[in-house]
Design a protein that fits this description.
A 5-stranded parallel β-sheet has the order 2-6-1-7-8. A 3-stranded antiparallel β-sheet has the order 3-5-4. By secondary structure, the protein is an alpha/beta fold. The chain has helices spanning 2-6, 31-46, 55-58, 60-64, 72-95, 107-119, 138-142, 156-168, 182-190, 198-207, 232-247, 257-292, 297-320, 335-354; strands at residues 18-24, 49-54, 99-100, 123-125, 133-136, 145-150, 172-179, 222-226.
Amino acid sequence: MKAAEDATGTGSEGPQKRGLCVLCGLPAAGKSTLARALRHRLRQQRGWAVGVVAYDDVMPDAFLDGASERTPSCWKLLRQELLKYLEYFLMAVINGCQMSAPPNRTEAMWESFTTCLKDQDLIFPAAHEAQSCYLLTKTAASRPLLLVLDDNFYYQSMRYEVYQLARKYSLGFCQIFLDCPLETCLQRNGQRPQALPDETIYLMGKRIEKPNPEKNAWEQNSLTIQSPACSSETSLEVTDLLLIALENPVKYVEDNMEQKETDRIICSTNILHKADQTLRRIVSQTMKEAKDEQVLPYNLKLLAEELNKLKAEFLEDIKQGNKNYLCFQQTTDISDVISFFLYEKDNIVQKYFSKQH
C-alpha cells in the first residue's frame, strides 16, 4: 500500500511525519504489553522514533505528591497537565528547538515525564543549561515520530482531548481498543504487585465507552483487537492503522472566534435545561443508593454536599462554555456531559461507600 511505502524511516522525503496513538481498555487488558511490542517492532522494522507514555508510570508519584487524597477534579487537572507536557515536546519537535519546562508544573510529574522521554532516546539534557531544558535526539528530530499514550481512556471525552491536540498541530491520530473479558482483567490484576480494587475495574467495565467511528467522525481511525489473542494478522492490522494515521494527519482548522462564541451560546442554551434535569435525577438516585447501603447520616450529609457542589460546577461550566468536552462540534447531545459527571460522581461515591466496609 502507499502508506507502507511512504512512512518509512530514513528514505522518505518531505516533512517529518508525526502521530498520536491512544491505547484504551480496562486495566490489565494488555495495553502496556502491546505498547512495548509496538515500540520494539516499529523501531526495528521501520526505523521510527517511538515514545510510549504510560500514564500509570508518569502520574502516580505526582498524584500522591503533597497530598494524601486528591479530588476527582484534581485527577482530571493532572491528566490535562500531562497533555500540556506532551504539547511542549511536540512544539520542540515541530519547531526544531529545545524543550523547556512549562511554568506552574507539578515537579514530580514533570520529572517522571522527562525521564520517560530520556529513557526512550527522544531527549537529553542540554549541556550547561538549566536543568529544566532538554534537546531533541537525532532520532526524535529526523525520523517519523509516534507517541503511544497508554492509559484506560475509558471515556470518549478523555480521548477527544488527545484528538484536539493532534488537530491543533496537524498530527496523525488513531485509537486501539483492547477488548478483554472482564474476568481475565480481574485475574491479571490480582497477580499484580499493586493491584487495583476489583470494584474499580467493575465500575470501569460498566462505564467504558468504546470507540464509535459510525457516530464520531474523529474516531474513524480506530481498531478493536481481542486480548489476549493477538495474532500476526492483528499485528498487520495495527501496523496498517498506524501507517494510515501518519500519512493522513488531522487537518488543522483555524478558529473563528465569533462563530465559535455563537455556536457555544446555542449549544449551551440547548443542553443546559436537559443537563440540569438529568444531573438532578442522578444525584437523587445516588443518594437513594447511599441510604440503601446504610451510609451513616453524617456521611450522607457530606455526600449530598459534594454531589450538589459537583452538579453546580458542571452547570456553570455549560453556561460559560469553558470545558472542551461539554460542547462537541455544535452538538446538543449531553451524553458527554453525563459521562464526565458520572466519572466524577463515582469517584466521590466510592469514598463514602468504602467507609461502610
